[in-house]
């Protein structure tokens, strides 16, 4: 692997820790971008990278993203991310997870882990046998914070869409507002259901088309082919599938006033925020609107660390601040004629002492 500090995504990361435990089959990279606001928190990705350099890039890029997301959510946490470089068969053993737990413990609380792509709640339970610096563990009671972050992420996006509709369309309700939802999994499905209760007009799409047809039927909406959703005429496009979906081609085809959804890293490249802005489309920066999940995970971890019970109401209270943060970004964007993603990045950099 080349020196990490020559990577374009290296941004003065405080820790780039490479873990090799041959005996227990672990190869991992743990990156902490900033601990200015607290321990670096962010999930663990378990993925096979034919070129390990791509794993390093993911760890660098994703840990910086977590610094911004945690800061903008007002959490006392920095940004971190771990990437486990899986073999081509994606072999995951109890020994590998134990070795990973030991590596997290070895950082003495500078990095706090949770689930990400390829890592389940059960995996985190295994990791938690070796370290206390872990979150996203099963919940114990109805009022306890924690568990699957998807519904919390969906709630934040729903509130963010309502704020966007107020800001851009001057409407206090989403009744009759047409929302096109791309990807109806844990997050997108939750967003669609919340909007349906308020009488929004829904068009949904998923690469699993039968899922989209069933949800449309359940909610009284319409489904379209996955490749038709981005150009569907609507008031709000809510991307909740994969990242990098907004580029020159797709932005030219958009027929919406607002883009507000949970998928991470929706802009294919940084300058595509300006392309959206120049087309007059209001963009909700993804790491601001999709912070509901990390708010839940963080509330759970911080309470346990302090020997307290984490209550789900505290999670909802903080998620309720997402619209105000978005308003702040859009107001600054309007008054300075600057794309909202750039405004958000600058705010986040200020909050982590890198402005
Ligand atoms: P998920 O796997 O439950 O759902 C994703 C859905 O998108 C699936 O139904 C999949 O079939 C569909 N999909 C994939 N490619 C598609 C395409 N090209 N067109 C239409 N549909 C497509 O995942 P999720 O947890 O709902 O996460 C969705 C997005 O939100 C991801 O980008 C994730 O990184 C991001 N996110 C999730 C959380 C969370 O709490 N789960 C938090 C922050 C961000």
What does this molecule look like?
It is a single chain. This protein has about 350 residues and is of the alpha/beta class. The protein has 2 domains: about 110 residues, Rossmann fold (3-Layer(aba) Sandwich), CATH 3.40.50.10860; about 170 residues, NAD(P)-binding Rossmann-like Domain (Rossmann fold, 3-Layer(aba) Sandwich). The chain has 13 helices and 12 strands. The strands form 2 sheets. Strands 1, 2, 3, 4, 5 and 6 form a 6-stranded mixed β-sheet that branches. The protein has a 6-stranded parallel β-sheet with strand order 9-8-7-10-11-12, with helices on both faces. The longest helix has 21 residues. It is globular. The model has no long low-confidence stretch (mean pLDDT about 95). Nicotinamide-adenine-dinucleotide binds next to helix 4 and helix 5. InterPro entries: Glu/Leu/Phe/Val/Trp_DH_C, Glu/Leu/Phe/Val/Trp_DH_dimer, Glu/Phe/Leu/Val/Trp_DH_bac/arc. This is Amino acid dehydrogenase. Belongs to the Glu/Leu/Phe/Val dehydrogenases family.
């Amino acid at each position: 692997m080349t020196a990490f500090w020559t990577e374009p995504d290296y941004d003065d990361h405080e820790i780039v820790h490479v873990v090799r435990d041959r005996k227990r089959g672990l190869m991992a990279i743990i990156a902490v971008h900033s601990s200015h606001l607290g321990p670096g928190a962010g999930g663990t990705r378990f993925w096979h990278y034919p070129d390990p350099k791509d794993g390093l890039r993911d760890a660098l890029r994703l840990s910086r993203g977590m610094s911004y997301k945690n800061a903008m959510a007002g959490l006392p946490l920095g940004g971190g991310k771990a990437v486990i470089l899986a073999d081509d068969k994606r072999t995951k053993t109890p020994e590998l997870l134990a070795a990973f737990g030991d590596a997290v413990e070895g950082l003495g609380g500078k990095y706090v882990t949770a689930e990400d792509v390829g890592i389940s709640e059960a995996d985190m339970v295994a990791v938690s046998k070796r370290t206390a610096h872990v979150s996203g563990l099963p919940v114990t009671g109805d009022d306890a914070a924690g568990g699957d972050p998807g519904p919390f992420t969906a709630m934040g996006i729903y509130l963010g869409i309502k704020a966007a509709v107020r800001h851009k369309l001057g409407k206090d309700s989403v009744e009759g507002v047409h929302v096109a939802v791309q990807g109806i999994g844990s997050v997108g499905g939750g967003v669609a259901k919340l909007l349906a209760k308020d009488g929004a007009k829904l068009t949904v799409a998923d690469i699993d088309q039968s899922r989209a047809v069933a949800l449309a039927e359940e909610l009284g909406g319409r489904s379209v082919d996955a490749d038709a959703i981005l150009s569907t005429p609507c008031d709000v496009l809510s991307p909740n599938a994969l990242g990098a979906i907004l580029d020159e081609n797709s932005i030219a085809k958009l027929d919406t006033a607002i883009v507000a959804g949970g998928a991470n890293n929706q802009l294919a490249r940084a300058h595509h925020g300006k392309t959206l802005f120049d087309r007059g489309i209001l963009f909700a920066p993804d790491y601001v609107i999709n912070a509901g999940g990390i708010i839940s995970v963080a509330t759970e971890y911080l309470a346990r660390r302090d020997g307290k019970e984490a209550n789900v109401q505290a999670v909802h209270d903080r998620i309720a601040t997402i619209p105000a943060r978005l308003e702040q970004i859009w107001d600054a964007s309007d008054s300075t004629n600057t794309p909202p993603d750039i405004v958000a990045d600058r705010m986040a950099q200020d909050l982590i002492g890198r402005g």
